[in-house]
Amino acid sequence: MPRTLSKLIGNTWFFLGVAFFVVLAAFPFYWMLITTFKTNSDLYNVANTPFWFNEWPTLEHLKYLFEETLFARWLWNSLVIGVCVVAITLVTAIPAGYALARMTSRKGEALGIGIFLTYLVPPTLLFLPLSRIIAELGLQNSMWSLVLVYPTFTIPFCSWLMMGFFKALPVEIEEAAVVDGCSLFGAFIKMAIPLSVPAILTVVIFTFTLTLQEFVYALTFVSSSDQKPITLGVTTDLVRGDVFFWGELMAGALIAAIPVAIAYNLFLDRFISGITGGAVK
To answer: Do 110 and 241 have their domain in common?
Structure first.
């Protein structure tokens, strides 16, 4: 009986802990959801309870977002920027990570750490020299400036991530492919790439998420509303002075968050496999 009681108490504390973190993680989404569909009179009435609907839900905030703002354009800009940056990062980070992983000396590991450290440099220090480059290329006030700038922080981390994953792949697999007649590049394409799909998927999700949430570079290089990504458009065009369009702000944040949440949930197993792939040899 004492053992059963102890097990029951342990399970109770476990589920209470899980419930606490679930509520903590889900509450921002719940808050965005109810704010999106609340009427303005419900939102700004301090006598109402803010945690549920005190009046009938409305679609007026979503209607305003899509009809009175450039929200659809911001979504499109973010999608174009994300796809382009993901492509640039994959083309650069996969060969770089493979080359670093197959370097036999300690120089490869030191070089990989050095590349990763560049990811830690704050954007507030980098946007000054990058702004000069953007000006020289004539990309001021264009979303293409972000396509050029964002790989500066996605490539270092993703190269380091791919390096760790490729180190976990046995070299003998590629050597066997070379013995069977493949070139070194052929062994890389036919053997290393298919086996590194979890890591590649991790790079795709991580890179797209970073581009979707980045704010400092977008605020620095883009000012025209039709060129803004969603993070910049929502936070600048829906906040005017001391007036916050809370319904529209939460609607924009919710719509931007849903695809990322779905992607992480659908590919969670592969994402974890890609993140931890280089930890176990």
So the answer is: yes
219-255 pLDDT, tens per residue? 888 888 889 999 888 888 888 767 778 888 888 888 8
**Full domain range(s) for residue 51:** 2-58
Please tell me the pTM assigned to this model. 0.81
The 3-state secondary structure of the chain reads CHHHHHHHHHHHHHHHHHHHHHHHHHHHHHHHHHHHHCCHHHHCCCCCCCCCCCCCCCCHHHHHHHHCCCHHHHHHHHHHHHHHHHHHHHHHHHHHHHHHHCCCCHHHHHHHHHHHHHHCCCHHHHHHHHHHHHHHHCCCCCHHHHHHHCHHHHHHHHHHHHHHHHHHCCHHHHHHHHHCCCCHHHHHHHHHHHHCHHHHHHHHHHHHHHHHHCCHHHHHHCCCHHHCCHHHHHHHHCEECCEECHHHHHHHHHHHHHHHHHHHHHCHHHHHHHHHCCCCC
**pLDDT-above-90 percentage for the chain:** 11
Q: Domains in the chain: how many in total?
A: 2
Query: Is 74 found in the same domain as 53?
Result: no
